[in-house]
Structure formats: structure tokens, C-alpha cells
Amino acid sequence: MTFRKENILVVDDNNDMLDLIQRQLKSFNYRTYKASSVNEAIEVLKNSEIDLLISDLNMPNINGIELLKYTQEHYPAIPKLVISGIPSVYNIVNAMKSGALDYLTKPFTSEELHKAILDSLKKRIPASKSPDLSLELNNANAYGNLIGNSKQIKDLIETINRVKDTRATVLIEGESGTGKELIARAIHFTSKIADKPFIAVNCAGIPENLIESELFGHVKGSFTGATESRIGLFQAASGGTIFLDEIGDAPMSVQVKLLRVIQEKEILRVGATKPEKIDVRILSATNSNLEELVLKGLFREDLYYRINVINIKTTPLRDRKEDLQSLINLFIEKYSLEYKKANIQINDKAIEVLQRYSWPGNVRELENVIHRLVIMNDDNITLNHIPEHLKYHIPSSDTIFKSLKEYEKEQIIKVLTAVNNNKTKAAQILQIDRKTLNQKIL
Ligand SMILES: Nc1ncnc2c1ncn2[C@@H]1O[C@H](COP(=O)(O)OP(=O)(O)OP(=O)(O)O)[C@@H](O)[C@H]1O
Ligand SMILES: [Mg+2]
């Protein structure tokens, strides 16, 4: 018999079910492994090269969700397919949140199983050695999809590909919502250390008096409340990646210590006298202008150069509108799945309006808009469903180099805004008829 190259691990506490699925998989020429508990499954994952995990959810002792989470964390490249006897929305949403790509409700036909397998295998996250990262990242799933057709996204993916297996520090700069965290995750989860921890720290979110001990740990009795010795996030990330988000907000006292970590590759716990060696890759992100902070004396210049060996600047969404269509599709798919709405579509006129808007909140704003649209609709999303404030947004681009047409559009928008969107009034002021006005704003 010829085998396909994929190895599939099936996990179910019911042995009859396991046998049945194994028989079906064999009939499609897959290699199969089986486990009847989460612990058994983890052993198989550790000892074999698994390409796809198919798991039941309701199992005694440890629930299938835990297995999904474990796999997501340790083997993010393995796609996960859930088979469940109890199709509760809660279970399904939970499974999706834990990284499952799809679910099948028992009983299912052999064809349904095969289709779900082929779909899941298609969405596999890239193996780190793979040459064509862009193609695979397009299908990436587990830690958010970094997608887009623009030159900027292609360049970005190329950069990620070049730096992911180096030890160089990477500083990711850009506006809010442009995907900085997503990029950091992509660097880690496509690298050779993807199975090691990825720890994200929000430097703006930890009170100044705790941040040092959070990052570097402390020894027992070093301050009031330090009843036990504890390791910090740097040590927790050992062998993997630490992502210092909002690094511009790190207090000066912490900046000095970060510099030491990068230079000496060792940390000093709060209250300790002996430094400890660490091996962690450091990624940082900021949406403030670090260079300016350096000039103002609010950010150490030496640290700036140390964290900025590779610099990635994200592009605002308004400057790469070519990405909109695929992002819209991605979010529609994501939320349709989450809310179990199979028929959501968006028409061209609605997309045109979204194309014209300037997206000050970038991809995050787009995602929120689509999320709401999917909740509020069951099938076709049309122009009428698009929130008003997105329709008449004045683009904030260069004010001198504009075509007459752009000026015309701006003037129309200004008048419409001034008359509270009363089109009859606006048409009167602009001295055109209503029909022409309608054509011009569509
Ligand atoms: N290129 C992209 N493809 C798909 N999803 C994206 C892309 N860029 C951003 N997103 C999504 O947009 C949202 C915001 O991204 P992310 O949190 O990485 O932004 P950020 O730059 O870190 O923002 P902030 O500075 O506000 O923290 C996330 O849900 C992310 O998955
Ligand atoms: Mg962020």
C-alpha cells in the first residue's frame, strides 16, 4: 500500500470510535497513530512527527481542550481538528479559541471526515525550514493570520523569514493596530524555537514598583510581600522569546537592567547578589517614536541601539489598501465560524466604502467593524449595514497634491456632514441634482 506522507494522531476515549476513524484514515492512505487519553496523546506528540491532530473533546480526567491548548503551545504547526459528540456552541468556541481549525459532529460520514482533513492540512502553519513562507503564512492560523497582498506585507514576510532564526534583537515600530504583536508571534512561531516559550510583556501595564521583579524575579525577603523566591519572565522564557511590548514605557530604572541583560546575557533578581545566565531572544515593539524619546532624554540611547539591530516598521492600513479585501475575507471567515453563520457575504458597494475609509485604528479597527457586522447580519452585508461614520470619512492625506475629483469628493463630504447627511439639502448647496449626488458618493 502507498502511504500519503501525513501522519495523523486520533484521540478518543471510546475505542470503537478510535478503530472506526483509524479504518477510515487507512482507507485514505494516511498513517495513523491513536491515543485514548490526553496523556497518551502527549506521549505520541513527543515521540512522533505528527502532521494533524484529530481529537475528541469530552474525555475523562483531562479534557480535549487541554490537549488542544498543549498542542497549540508546544507544536503550533500542527493543525487541530475536533470531533465532538456534544455540539455545544460553548465547546466549539472554546475549541476554536484553543487553536482548533474545524470540528466535526459525531456521527460523520467518511467523506465529511476526509474533506475536513484535507481542509485542515491545507491550513498548516509553515514548517520553519520551508522556503516559501509567504504562501504558507497566508494560510497560517494558529497565532493569528498575518496576511496581505501588498508589497509591504510581502517585504515584511521576507524580513521575518530572514531574521526568525537569528539571535538579533528586533524592534517593531508602528501605529496602533497595525499588527506589531502579530509580527512578533510570527517571528517566534515560525522559527526553530517555536516549541519553546513565547512570553509577551506589556511594559506599560505593570506598575513601576513591580516591573523589575516581574521581569527578573526576586529572592525571598527582598521586599515586603516577597515571601518566596520567584523567577521572572526572562527566566520563564528561557530558550524561547520574550516580547517587550510598549518598550517606550519602560521606566529608566528598568532600561538600565535591560541593557545589562542584552549585553551580559544575564539577569539579576531583585535582592540577589549573584547574576544568572539566561538565553532568550528579545523582540520589542512600540507605537511611540523612540528616536524622539531618546532626544528628549526619556529613553536610553545605548538601549535603543541594542534593541534595534533589526528594525521593522509596520505600514498603516490606509497606505496598503490592497490588503483590505483579503483582510475582510479573513475576518468574515473567522467570525462566521465563531458565530456559526455559514452564509455571510459582503457586497461590492459595501467593500468600496470600506476601501475608501482611512482606518485610523488600522487592522484592529477593521476587525472590530467586521466582527460587529457578522454579529448583526445573517447573510448579505450591504451598504446599508456599514456604520455611517465610515461612509463619509475625509482622508487625511496630503492636502495639496489632489485631483479635482478628490477635491470634489471632499467638498461633498464636508457639505453632507454639515447638513447632517440630508442629501436634498446637500444637493441644493452643491447645485447638482440628488441623483448625481448619489452617484458621486457611491
Ligand atoms: N496583516 C495582518 N493580517 C491579519 N490580521 C492582522 C494583520 N495585522 C493585524 N492583524 C490583526 O489586527 C489586530 C491588531 O493587531 P496587533 O495586536 O498585532 O496590533 P499592534 O500593532 O500590536 O497594536 P497596538 O499597538 O495597539 O498594540 C489583531 O487581531 C491581529 O490579528
Ligand atoms: Mg500590540
Write the layout of secondary structure elements.
Layout: E1 7-11, H1 15-27, E2 31-35, H2 38-47, E3 52-56, H3 64-74, E4 80-84, H4 89-97, E5 100-105, H5 110-122, H6 133-138, H7 151-163, E6 170-173, H8 180-189, E7 198-202, H9 208-216, E8 217-218, E9 230-231, H10 233-236, E10 241-245, H11 252-264, E11 266-267, E12 276-277, E13 281-286, H12 290-295, H13 301-307, E14 310-313, H14 324-338, E15 345-346, H15 348-356, H16 362-376, E16 380-381, H17 388-391, H18 404-418, H19 423-430, H20 434-441
The structure holds adenosine-5'-triphosphate (ATP) and magnesium ion (MG).
From the spread of the alpha carbons, the general shape counts as flat
The count of domains is 4
Mean pLDDT: 85
The neighbouring-strand order within the major sheet is 2-1-3-4-5
Major sheet description: 5 strands, parallel
Bound molecules: adenosine-5'-triphosphate, magnesium ion
CATH superfamily of the largest domain: P-loop containing nucleotide triphosphate hydrolases
* Low-pLDDT stretches: 127-144
> What is the CATH third-level topology name of the largest domain?
Rossmann fold
Number of beta strands: 16
Name the structural class.
Answer: alpha/beta
